[in-house]
Give the backbone structure.
Amino acid sequence: MTTPTYKIIDLAPDGQSNRTVSMGTVVIQLVTRYNYSASCWTMDILDSLGNLMLAGLMLVPNVDILKPYTAIKESLGSLVLVEVNAGDYQSPDLLGINTALVWFPSGTEVVLPI
């Protein structure tokens, strides 16, 4: 059995955060912010030129957040939030500390590394 290929994307709970990330051959920007009404972090995805691809994606654990967006998923792969303790994703202070955003290349079976 082959070890699954994945990459942990570094995120931080520092208000609105903008990270440039290489996802295989594609470079994107991830903008995260905490949504107090929904009690979870959200994320926007922009292309390398800063054009908005997806907005307001809720970062909930153990779900491929790109699954509903077939065309984008084919080019970017899968993004799954994992957490240390149940409910950590709801804290405005734990993004990237007790949670991690995991990327899987397109065509890879998503197997959580925990």
